[in-house]
Amino acid sequence: MNTEQFRSAGYQAIDRICEYHDTLRDRPVSSQVEPGYLRKLLPSSAPIEGEDFQLIADDYQKYIIPGLTHWQHPSFYAYFPTSSTFEGILAELYASSTSNPGFNWAASPACTELEAVVMDWTAQLLGLDKAFYNISEVGGGVIQTSASDSVLVSTVAARSRYIREHPDVAMEKLVIYTTTQTHSLGKKSGLVLGLTVRALDVTAQDNFALRGDTLKVALEEDIKAGLHPFILIGTVGTTSSGAVDRLDEIADVAKHYPSLWLHVDAAWAGVAFACPEYREAYQLPAINEYVDSFCTNFHKWGLIHFDGSCLWVRHRQHLIDALDITPEFLRAKNGNAATAIDYRNWHVGLGRRFRSLKFWFGLRARGVKGIQKYITDCIKLNNKFSQSIYESELFSVVTKPSLAITVFRLAPKSLPHLRTPELNTLNRAFYARLAARNDIAITQTDLNGVFCIRMVIGSEKTLESDVEHALELMKDEAMISLKNWEVIGNGRGRKTSVILSQTH
Ligand SMILES: Cc1ncc(COP(=O)(O)O)c(C=O)c1O
Predict the structure, then answer these.
(1) Atom number in ligand 1 closest to CA 235
(2) 265 CB less than 6 Å from ligand 1?
(3) Is the beta carbon of 83 within 6 A of some atom in ligand 1?
(4) How far is the CA of 296 from the centre of ligand 1 (A)?
(5) Are the C-beta atoms of 139 and 315 separated by less than 8 Å?
(6) I want to staple 396 with a disulfide (CB 3.0 to 4.6 A). Which of 83, 136, 277, 411 is the partner?
């Protein structure tokens, strides 16, 4: 392709992308294809001769778009959102136009310097303490691929600090602390590093938040048993229910264990700190005062499309001590200088994508106010939704709604005798009906044995009428689920007709 051909293919691509976004609402949310659909459609090897680009572009429309789930769709309420903007798409286009692995300052000074600047912008946006700013030259921020990478890197730094402070401790005695509600990233970092993971219990009464006392007891038990807990992965906004660990209590305990590294995974909820009114309740003061590392994914709720996981550390030197390997060919005049960060020592890979560009474009285009408005709009819609669940005769919330997530289940008020196992069966059937629909995407979860449905609002295209429509559709599916449920299953053998007459 020459530049003229690129120009015309580029115009067409932009037109098609616009058409895709303009017609999102009319598309099914989830893809309708069966596993293996694509292999049947594509040749088994790459073409020997190069092909005409128009053919390739048309095949993208024909074969790939039908296999996509539309995360920006107004009726996408599953997982957590992955917001994006047109400015971000353009930033990705510019970034890829220079194909640049920017692993150190000299590899492309603008890549490193822009990342250092936008990480300070985002730290300010969230109200993080200045200790985390790159400009502090002590702490600093870096863009990682995912929250899992952020946790892995933090755990490596924590382990290296611990081993330096306790050189005689054997690796098999080290323990990573998570909770039973921590994202699987905790277990995965244990798996990757060959370390033991202990998941501390959290309860429904505490809204699934880790309490200081639980941590204290675990630390005492493990230390007595000759083990060495060296990192706690706390969460602000758990995946299942948006729970917030009590970092204030945790910090009170942890300050008696100065070698315990505190990492906070706020992959989804952390961006809500952009709105000052959520900082106190979601534990920002404790984060600012105590934690060693903090992560939030702007690619979830921060209007930056995947990937853009932001990790801040209080002491960059711990990352560098753990990850710096500098062969002669990577020695550069400004390597590891405070102002010319060698970001290759802050993550696992060497090369890195030029991700800061989409942050720069995105933050400038929306401004602080634009991001705050997007977040508060999502929360307002969720408040309306959760209020309807509280008032509903059919549904009930399972745990306190958090920011833009409501976790609920079908639990007709007219059937108060139904116990968890029966409700779980009923809700599995209800969820199966919702999951089979292509006009809504929503996910399920399990909270300490309670099967429930998670509703997360995050698409910028979602309107109040979409949420109302989702609720109506859930009510219809709930009634059908109750109708189809032949026997209540509580040992009394009552027929669903009884249930239905009671729910009307
Ligand atoms: C609280 C939390 N942490 C971590 C993750 C994983 O994020 P990533 O895919 O960036 O590793 C998720 C994903 O939804 C999450 O909800």
Answers:
(1) 1
(2) yes
(3) no
(4) 9
(5) yes
(6) 411
Q: Choose which residue among 183, 233, 236, 407 to substitute to test ligand 1 binding: the one with the highest number of ligand atoms within 8 A of its C-beta.
A: 183
Distance (angstroms) between ligand 1 centre and the Cα of 408 equals 21
Is the shortest distance between the CB of 183 and ligand 1 below 6 Å? yes
Instruction: Give me the percent of the chain exceeding a pLDDT of 90.
Output: 88
Residues 90-108 have a mean pLDDT of 91
Report the separation in Å between the CA atom of 147 and the middle of ligand 1, taken as the mean of its atom positions. Answer: 6
Question: Using a 6 Å cutoff on CB, does residue 238 contact ligand 1?
Answer: yes
Are the C-beta atoms of 258 and 290 separated by less than 8 Å?
no
pTM of the model: 0.94
Longest dimension (CA), the chain: 79
pLDDT of residue 333: 64
Q: Quickly state the pLDDT bin for 201 (edges 50, 70, 90).
A: very high
For residues 38-63, average pLDDT? 98
Spell out the alpha helix ranges (H) of 225-355.
247-254, 284-290, 298-301, 316-323
What CATH number matches the domain at 101-353, 3.40.718.10, 3.40.50.2000, 3.40.640.10, 1.10.1660.10?
A: 3.40.640.10
Q: Which residues touch 85 (CB under 8 Å, ≥6 apart)?
A: 303, 304, 305, 362, 365, 366
| Rounded average pLDDT over 110-134 | 97
Tokens linked to 302: 């921060």
β-pairing, 405-410 vs 450-456, is antiparallel
Question: Could you report the per-residue pLDDT of 458-494, keeping only the tens digit for each?
Answer: 999 999 999 999 999 999 999 999 998 754 544 344 5
* Residue-wise pLDDT tens digits, 305-355: 899 999 999 999 999 999 988 776 666 666 555 567 999 999 999 999 999
Over 70: is that where the pLDDT of 292 sits? yes
Q: Which CATH number fits domain 377-503: 2.70.70.10, 3.90.1150.10, 3.20.20.140, 2.40.50.40?
A: 3.90.1150.10
Q: What is the DSSP letter of 369?
A: H
CA–centroid distance, residue 161 to ligand 1 (Å): 25
Establish whether residue 414 lines the binding site of ligand 1, counting it when its CB lies within 6 angstroms of any ligand atom.
no
Q: For the segment 393-431, what is each residue's pLDDT rounded down to a tens digit? A: 999 999 999 999 999 999 999 999 899 999 999 999 999
Q: Is 208 in the pocket of ligand 1 (CB under 6 A)?
A: no
| Ligand 1 neighbour 209 (Cβ under 6 A) | no
- Of 1.10.1240.10, 3.10.100.10, 1.20.1340.10, 2.60.120.620, which CATH number belongs to 3-67? 1.20.1340.10
Q: Hey, which of 144, 155, 268 would you mutate to test ligand 1's pocket, going by the most ligand atoms within 8 Å of its Cβ? A: 268
User: What pLDDT is recorded for position 501?
Assistant: 42
Q: How far is the CA of 101 from the centre of ligand 1 (A)?
A: 25
Distance 433 CA to ligand 1 centre (A): 26
Q: What are phi and psi of 396, to 5 degrees?
A: -145, 150
DSSP H helical ranges for 283-396: 284-290, 298-301, 316-323, 356-391
